[in-house]
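Subject: mismatched residue count in predicted assembly?

I count 853 residues in my input, but I want to confirm that the predicted structure covers every chain. Input:
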Amino acid sequence: MKNNTFGQYFPGNSLLHRMDPRMKLIVTILYIVMIFCAKNVLSFAFLLLLTVFLILISRISVRIVLRSIRPIIFIVLFTVVFNIFLTGGTGEPLAAFWIFEIYREGIVRAILMALRVIILITGTGVLLTYTTSPIALADAIESLLGPLKKIHVPVHEFAMMMTIALRFIPTLIEETDRIMSALKARGADFSNGSIVKRVKALIPILIPLFVSAFKRAEELAVAMECRCYRGGEGRTKLHVLHYRFSDFVWLFFFVLFLVSVFLINAFSPIKIAY
Amino acid sequence: MSFIEAEHVSFTYDDGTPESVPALRDMTLTIEEREYVAVLGHNGSGKSTFAKLLNLILLPTEGKLSVAGHTVSEEMSEDDVFAVRRQVGMVFQNPDNQMVATTVEEDVAFGPENLGIPHPELAERVSGALECVGMSAFARHAPHQLSGGQKQRVAIAGIIAMMPRCIVFDESTAMLDPVGRSEVMATMEKLNREQGITIIHITHYMEEAARANRIIVINDGELFMDGTPREVFSRAEELRSVGLELTQSGELIHELRLAGMADLPNDCLTEDECVEAILRAYRARNGGAS
Amino acid sequence: MKNILELSHVSYLYSEKTPFEMQALHDVSVGFEEGCVTGIIGHTGSGKSTLVQMLNGLLRPSEGQVLLNGEDIWRKPKEITSVRYRVGLVMQYPEYQLFDETVRADIGFAPRNMGLSEKETEERVREAAEFVGLSESLLDKSPFDLSGGQKRRAAIAGVLAMRPEVLVLDEPAAGLDPRGRQEILGRLQEYRRERRASVIFVSHSMEDMAHYCDRLLVLNHGEVLMQGTVSEIFCDAEKIRSAGLFVPQVATVADRLRRAGVPLPEGLCTVESVSRELLSLLGKGGNAQ
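Triage response: the counts match. Full output below for your records.
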């Protein structure tokens, strides 16, 4: 747990790493819109290609990217089963038993839906979480939501909270580790027993963790006040984000991709859809 | 006017409630600019309360306190409060609980950012402060990649970047290993010597206190002693009565004096003085014999 | 002297088989003598805390063995908890690990885990609390209402209630004032004497180490730099400094006096021993009048 990084960020210097975090947020949104707009086999094939391309230029190992599917494998399987059995179709069913009938449309739909979930997770992974440090992300959100300050949305406070949360995650992980070790040293057992017993065993961890988190929060608040913190008003920033030309090239391409998806949807010669 | 002037200052936690606890009583003292003061006292003696009064985290419940030319009162404007705080920086005990940002340079920038320092001065202040504490090479590191002593030096840099006239160290060496402690001590002495920053160092370590120009001893919320290290450490029994001790050199001389070697001076502070005094006594006794 | 605990060629890697792999201990072989107070010193990151967590099986060596009374503690990994009852470990800043509703219940956590009866648990709680100097009236308070020093003592009592043969503490006196330090460390010596137990503790204060320990272990970058009696270790000031540590001030004073011709024996490192030797010398020298 004493890693140099936490979360899922893998430091690097690829084209994706160097994109302005604000632009990454924007193109990620475009990417998600594309995925949900894709309607037929051809547009999905196009998105699959795009995703593979993004994974390759992110220079993140394919193994790591594929590993991100593991937690959602159940959702994927559920989607597949659900779609295979519950999609009605025209023409003869391919197979039938009891009350279920399987149609060709069902199978196509199942494959496309599974593909949709998988490219959604891996694509946003390489676009955003794997290649952007959490702190850059917090900065980007603060900057993008900046205009909302005018209607009194506490954007600065929100970003400050995110920064502090990120700053304290490693500290609290270490602390959790220490508390667990101390309890194990006094004979606590976290790995055996029924679910109820294991949940109960968490209480002695959570109580000291909360107590110390509150103490830390109090001390941090005093320390921040001592350093003249009085909200976002009149603050300057050491690092100011600057868009570069390449960021707009990315934007141009993603808009182009989105338009392409719409065009493929509309004029696809292959009429297999769901 | 002195930099810090306290006249009959008292502070009571939860004042006016049944749980009220007097933490400081009737403190009267002044601290001049450029002084290097150590504050001693056992746990719960009111040392930290004293520190928190100096940069207005707490306000005195009684008496008159003025810091950096501002008279402290509840009616002070917020701008005045922050005018005092930017001149009296504070470094706390737990290095983890005073770092706000996720990289060293951004943490150092936090104070000046709050003051609204514009570019390029902001970046200059940050790099200058990091250089001053010898942490320039770590500018892009995350706080949890640093040792305790390094984190404290970053915390100091964060204060220096605000260009204060005084820095209060509230047991800032307590959680550090020997190397970390000597790094922090060296940094604070350098600031006092080279930049004339007033240093107020609250500590449990007698060896550290002995390095200051003046020691204030607080006991049960009251000013117990105030003098040069030499004066304070010559009153061994009184110090012990309030749960403190001498430096090891001082303890040794004190033991020897108690055992009848009355010709040893009672105000040895440093290792050098202690060695010299004992050698002198030894040679005086062995002079005829050898 | 017999070794109660022994590490034999122990190495430890953090985050093994990941890009963040880091060696915390490298081929460490040490013995901890039965009935001794052994101090462990070393700079931050020297591997002290890792080593301490090896002793009661909180961490399992990547290589090598940990022997308790000559037996490998990992021979039956499922029974590691019984080792933890025999080797009591107090972690750093243990006051932040209190959790139960009352001090009594908190100290009783380990005895209950050991499967002791309510009556016996109660007896152990009272005994441990008394030993660390917590009065009966504090036992029914919430641990969060105690003062800092009392919390620390309650947390230590929580480990003493297991009646461990070996008591291991990671910086038990950190952050305390001189009187608090003396009280806690004095209690540890007392525990060793009353229970004929062995005590192992980590500290950054060389003065405390000189005063309270019989033997010392010096770690540097995850390896054993020195081990021996306190006098042996503090004789070699150069080597100690090379590990980012210091010898107690009074040891330097004694050393300088010796070099200046005062015939003091080597290896003096406490105020008591130096003043005793000096007094006997000067007494011999003639005119103490």
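The CA atoms of residues 37 and 214 of chain C lie 5 Å apart. Marking this ticket as 'not a bug'.
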